[in-house]
Each structure stands twice: as structure tokens, then as C-alpha cells.
Amino acid sequence: MAKYSVVSLIREGLRGHAGWRRAWRNPDPRPAYDAVIIGGGGHGLATAYYLAKAHGLTDIAVIEKGWIGGGNAGRNTSIIRSNYLFDESAAIYNHALTLWKGLGRELNFNIMMSHRGVLNLAHDEHEGRQLKRRIEANRLNGVEAEWLDAREVKSFCPVINIARDIRYPVLGATLQRSGGVNRHDAVIWGYARAADALGVDIVQQCEVTGIRTENGQVTGVDTTRGAIRTPKVASVTSGHTSIIAGMVGLKLPIQSHPLQALVSEPIKPLVPCVIMSNAVHVYCSQSDKGELVIGAGIDAYNSYTQRGSLNIIEHQMASLCELLPVVGRLRMMRQWGGIVDVCPDASPIISKTPVKGFYINGGWGTGGWKATPGSGHVFADLIARDEPNAIAAPFALERFHTGALVAEHGAAAVAH
Most Cβ neighbours (<10 Å): which of 48, 91, 162, 348? Predict the structure, then answer.
């Protein structure tokens, strides 16, 4: 990596960075590729990277209607954990967590991974029993998890209010010490640079307007920058999976909802871990800049708008002030919303489809970011071999016909 003096950095800034080489190319789309990936977020770029690195498929285009990372990848709160209840979920999320641990080294890019621990709070005896059940299921699947009582929660995160006379007293919590947060845009940039270096074309400002088929087989895509011939199209478009699937006549059991978050003004280090509460419907972590990153559950209505509603913000802030009274006078600086696709069983779809050459990766609900490297890794395997591996197989479309659902509503908790 090139080293720059202060003077050279100032000079480059004044001349618009004209002397710096782009971290990745900005190519025009070519007339044909071996595969086209629709969606330039974390999952799409990870899929392209692993297709090139693990399977040697480099004649690939990632098509993004805006700029890479401009959708849900840039609108999430970047929480990482793998303590899900069912075997199938534990496998995919723990696979992702394993990849997260070494991803910065693999991509040679600082993704600011911080394994600071994730607390899932219990506020009544029933919730405590459910969380303890999840711990035992985690241990059977080799997922690291432990139970803390209220005093141990206070010791691990001193700012939490454990008074017994509040509306939702904290009785205990699960703790996954290897969970944490990272920097979403750094992950996007790292994957983009690595995929580009392997020959993948990342085409931005290019919207897919249609998918061409012939005799039940994908033959190409139409875009705002021309038609592209390809025998394989993979949809990785969080929030818009149903729209892309509709281009080939598929109707999916997916609903799209807004999911919103907000950040406070920056303060000194206060919250040492990720705090999540299902009962009061709020979660919180602190960024490296000092902001409190705060979120809640999805808005109940269906929408494709990237904004939320005031009642969700009011509820989550009231809940946060009860859990962390010390933050009650903080000012909130900005709020944003994303769009999440939700399946009936709160688990994703990673599947080939009845249209030969058309693949779907979507329906992650509020859990998409934490799965990014694992999702891309197994989806690349599916695209390359046209068959799912053991991790991806439970998330095929067929489960909605067979009834073999992976019902993760409880372990998905409030969000993320």
C-alpha cells in the first residue's frame, strides 16, 4: 500500500485526488457475462468475490441501480452474532461469524471488526426460560453462549438499569462474547476492491428493468444501460426481492417493511457491548465515533419507502431511557430507514428457482448484515454448482411447500 506524507495528502485533496488510483474500476457493462448478480450490497459483492475466489468464475458483473452499499448495506446497524435457536440457522450464522473473524485479513482491509459481546436481555421468567433454552441449543451446535444473572449483567455493562421496580426489570441475559459490530461501508469497500482485483465488473448507476427468458431458461437482463446476455442471474436485492422475482413470473412468500434506526450525538465511551431487548423492543451499541446507534423492530405496514414512523422512535427511546437512564438527556442527531424482506418463518431464501439459471438470495428480514460473508459464500457455491450445499439446503423455496420451515421469530428477537 502506498504511503503518503501530509503534504502529498493535502496536494491530492486540492486537485481532487487525481493522482490516486481507484480502489476498484468503474466499467461500462459488457454485452455478455457468464453470470450477472443484481444488487451491489454486502451479500451481492460477497457472492461475486467468492464466485471468483473459490470457484474461478471471474466473467461476472455486479449490477447496482445506485451506488454500491447505498441500499440496506449502508442503512443497517452492523450487529454481528450467531446465537440463533434452530440447527439450520446456527449453521449459516456461525459460518458467517467464522468468516467475519478473519475477513479483514483476507480482504486486506480494515473492516473495524469489534468482538465486544452481545447481550440479549430477559425481563420476565418466561423470557428467561426461552433464552436459556436457546443457550442449550447453541451449545449443542457449537455456538458460544452463556447466561448472566442480573448482577453479572450489571458487571458486564455497568450502565444498565437493573432496578426491580421498573416496568421491565432485567432478570438476566444471554451473552455471546464473540458477537459485536463492524463498519458497514468498510466491508463493502473491502469486498468491492477484492472482487474487482479478481476481474469482476462492478457496474453502478445501472438498473435492471427486466430479465429475459426462453423456454424456461434465463438468457439475459435488460438494464438502463443496455441489454446483457447471460445464462445465470442471481438476485441479491434486499427489500426488492419480490420485484426482481416478478420479472420472471415468480411470486414469493415475502413482505417488505421499513426498518429504522437513529444515532445520538457523540459522547465518551459508555456502552461497552451490544444491548438487545425483545420485550421493550430496543437495541443499542456505541460507535467508534462515540454515537449511540439505536434501533427497534420493523414498522408493521408494508412499504418500499426508506423512512420510518414517529411512533416507533418514541417507543424505542422511552424503552432505552428505562434501560439506560444515564442517556436520557442526549440529543438525537439523525434518523434513517431501510427496507427489509420478511419471510413467514423469519428465515431467508437461498435457492435456485423453477426458472433455470435464476437464483434468489433474500428474505433475511432484520438479520441480513450479520450473515453477509456466510450468505455470499454459500450462495456462490449454489450458483457455481447449481446445487445447494448442506448449509444452504434448508433455505430453499421448497420448504414453503413441504412445511419444513425454519421458524426463527423468537431467536431473531427485536432485530439483528
Answer: 48
